[in-house]
User: Fold this.
Amino acid sequence: MFVGMERYTFSWRNADLLVIVLIAALLAIGLAQVLSATYKTDTPFSHFFIKQLFGALSGILLALLIARTDWRKIEEWGTIIFGATIILLLFTLFLGKRAMGAHRWIDLKIIRFQPSELAKFALPAALITYLRNG
Assistant:
């Protein structure tokens, strides 16, 4: 399909150092703000800070995973990922858990998640496929 194109591999030499530094600074400032706003002498690391730290670390891990992924693989699966997300969104509309007056959550008893969060990844994947193939 892509004759003459070598397999894509992530290299730190190709990474934009300024973007990495700015993201790291924003993460550090955000964590410092949450820590400052929720600090108590009896519990220095609040639930909110730990939740924010977990989110930041999982975001970094996800970014590294995506950076190592060849965009052509995303293109191959883009339509399938988008279709599955649309099905989950429809499932949520009819059978989702109600929170703050709207059906937003799918409850798997172990974890609850919002399919709209998956749409943030599925829509660009589908757009890659659509724009590439016309």
In short: DSSP finds four helices and three strands in the chain. The chain has a mean pLDDT of 82. Strands lie at 97-99, 102-107, 112-113. The two ends are 16 Å apart (CA to CA).
